[in-house]
């Protein structure tokens, strides 16, 4: 009896040893090394990769994505990447060149150009009498569709306008400020990573579905919160918010700066001051990265209030919770300022 027990113990020991040796001999399936450009994209990728890995962030929080000098560690992140998720060259033209030299073999996904992303052209001016209401109505029709069928994001709106002397040309890259785009991008990110890493495909897809459900709730919450103030006129520092405005039917009537790189002319400032009075502007919003004195110039002698909006959430901690926090922050600041009147 003792011999049988001893034999059984020896067999179990051999099996356990073989399992241990096999686990040591067989390398674990490598998780793709992933790099991202800006904090909103980093947040969406972090949500999808939760529990599997963490993406690197090339453009640090609070920095301007339009002209950024990478540190050696950020360049190394691109060199080591298997997959790079970025908005596109419209936001970071310098990164397009860097990817060509540092990450030529990486899978590069420009989210702005993925089929199904809702896109809008840059506007020459954000003025009430310049808004293309036909395009605005068309976008509302798409919103109706989105509200009833979140699984279908095939519709794409480019909405190009032929304005002479356009300060910007082409697609406005701030597309993450439409949460429906972010919802769609979660699916794109999950499917891309599932193809690169089939062993963790179920986790990526499950995480994306959870993020999409959170965005569904977020959209409905924001609609309810902005509803009492959505007709109140306001002015932004630069025209970076049309994706949010169109999604939630907000009433932007002017932008202090038409370009991220240059200060507005005195004539444009005079136009904006006239608009403040003509359209009963309630709030003029500054941005932390730009000259606040320009906002003071616009506000001087008016009853309009001031607030701060930031399309990149420079004061929000990076990570999976960044994106929903960004949308809530924009909403809170808009409603707080516009609701004071």
Automatic annotation (TrEMBL):
It comes from the Bacteria. SUPFAM superfamilies: Helical backbone' metal receptor. Residues 134-170 are annotated as: Disordered. Residues 1-30 form the signal peptide. Keywords: Ion transport, Signal, Transport, Zinc, Zinc transport. Belongs to the bacterial solute-binding protein 9 family. PANTHER family: HIGH-AFFINITY ZINC UPTAKE SYSTEM PROTEIN ZNUA, HIGH-AFFINITY ZINC UPTAKE SYSTEM PROTEIN ZNUA-RELATED. This is High-affinity zinc uptake system protein ZnuA. It comes from Spiribacter onubensis.
């Amino acid at each position: 009896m003792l011999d049988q027990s001893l034999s059984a113990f020896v067999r179990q020991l051999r099996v356990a040893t073989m399992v241990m040796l096999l686990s040591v001999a067989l390398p674990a399936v490598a998780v793709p090394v992933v790099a991202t450009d800006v904090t909103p994209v980093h947040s969406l990728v972090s949500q999808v990769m939760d529990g599997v890995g963490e993406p690197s962030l090339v453009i640090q929080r609070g920095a301007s994505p339009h002209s950024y000098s990478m540190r050696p560690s950020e360049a190394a992140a691109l060199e080591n990447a298997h997959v790079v998720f970025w908005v596109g060259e419209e936001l970071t033209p310098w990164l397009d060149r860097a990817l060509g030299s540092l990450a030529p073999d990486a899978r590069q996904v420009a989210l702005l150009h993925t089929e199904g992303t809702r896109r809008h052209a840059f506007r020459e001016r954000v003025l009430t009498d310049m808004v293309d209401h036909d395009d605005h109505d068309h976008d509302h029709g798409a919103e109706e569709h989105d509200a009833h069928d979140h699984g279908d994001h095939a519709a794409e709106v480019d909405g190009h306008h032929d304005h002479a002397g356009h300060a910007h040309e082409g697609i406005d890259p701030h597309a993450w400020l439409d949460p429906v785009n972010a919802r769609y991008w979660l699916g794109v990110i999950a499917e891309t990573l599932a193809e690169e890493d089939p062993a963790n495909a179920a986790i990526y897809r499950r995480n994306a579905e959870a993020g999409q459900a959170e965005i569904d709730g977020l959209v409905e919450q924001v609609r309810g919160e902005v509803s009492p103030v959505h007709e109140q006129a306001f002015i932004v520092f630069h025209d970076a918010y049309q994706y949010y405005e169109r999604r939630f039917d907000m009433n932007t009537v002017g932008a202090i700066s038409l370009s991220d790189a240059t200060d507005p002319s005195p004539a444009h400032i005079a136009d904006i001051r006239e608009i403040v009075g003509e359209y009963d502007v309630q709030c003029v919003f500054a941005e932390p990265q730009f000259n606040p004195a320009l906002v003071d110039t616009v506000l001087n002698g008016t009853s309009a209030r001031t607030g701060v909006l930031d399309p990149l959430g420079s004061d929000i901690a990076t990570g999976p919770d960044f994106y929903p926090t960004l949308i809530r922050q924009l909403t809170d600041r808009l409603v707080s300022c516009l609701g004071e009147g």
